[in-house]
Amino acid sequence: MLRTALVFSVLAHLAVLLGLLELIEAKHQAWFPAPLSARLVELPPAPKVEPQPETRKVEPALAPMKSAPRVVPAPAKPAPAPAPAAVESPRTEPVIAAPAPTQPGTSRAIDAAPVITVPRLAVTASAPAPALDEAGTVAQYRISLMQVASTLKTYPRIAQENNWQGRVELRLTVGAGGAIASLAVKSGTGYVLLDQHALDMLRSAQPKTPLPAGLRGREFTLDVPVVFDLKDG
User: Fold this and answer.
1) Element (H, E) at 224
2) Which string of b and e fits 106-142 if b means at least 16 CB within 10 Å?
3) pTM, full prediction
4) Helix axes 192-205, 134-152, angle to 10 degrees
5) Is there a domain that residue 101 lies in?
6) Is position 141 within any domain?
């Protein structure tokens, strides 16, 4: 806004000054009229002027406005460059470009195709640790648990008298400490007495079954079937 006001002020002063100059010139001509004189003069023939090539008038460039001096910050001291790390030289493999097909009836000298080398960084991977055969270890523990449970198995007398038999599958989860974390019936025989008897039998057999070294400190789950058959007694 200050610049705009300054421009308007300058323009107003110029207009007033020009008006005063024109007024003074008009009064001067009114006071001192110039004498009029006329005479006839024969004009010489006008010289033949050849057309000149058109020249482009270049307007003078306006002087740039003075701007405030620019403050240049002092350059910061460059940090010392870190020592380059040792880089393994990349392996390169040659890639042979396929020759362009030739049209029949024309012969062309076959030059050796250029060999393009593509760098490939050598990746050093550490050897993976041997995986633990958890499934095989759990299966081995399951067999041992069933063998111990078979020594504790008894057939309830009421079930024998009522000819109750069937197969029950139990879901057992052993915690990291080696004790039973959860024990439930996954699929029952249809008789609550037989299902409960199977739960009690497995609950007694688990503490007596040694835990493999590969499963110590780990939580795992397994299914254990228990069959009640009247033929086996």
Assistant:
1) strand 220-228
2) eeeeeeeeeeeeeeeeeeeeeeeeeeeeeeebbeebb
3) 0.44
4) 110
5) no
6) yes
**Residue 113: predicted pLDDT:** 47
Buried b (16+ CB within 10 A) or exposed e, 28-53: eeeeeeeeeeeeeeeeeeeeeeeeee
pLDDT of residue 83: 54
Mapped onto helix, strand or coil, the DSSP state of residue 184 is strand
* Domain with 211 in it: 135-228
- 91 pLDDT above the threshold of 60: no
Residues 170, 202: contact at Cβ < 8 Å?
yes
What pLDDT band is residue 173 in, cutting at 50, 70 and 90? very high
Residue 197: exposure state from Cβ atoms within 10 A (0-12, 13-18, ≥19): buried
- The CATH number of whichever domain residue 150 belongs to comes to 3.30.1150.10
In-domain check, residue 187 = yes
Whether 165 is covered by a domain: the verdict is yes
Question: Is residue 164 within 8 Å of 225, Cβ to Cβ?
Answer: no
End-to-end CA distance of the chain: 111
Q: Count the domains in the chain.
A: 1
Taking residue 226's Cβ as centre, other Cβ atoms within 10 Å add up to 22
128 torsion bin: left (phi>0), alpha (psi -120 to 50), beta (else): beta
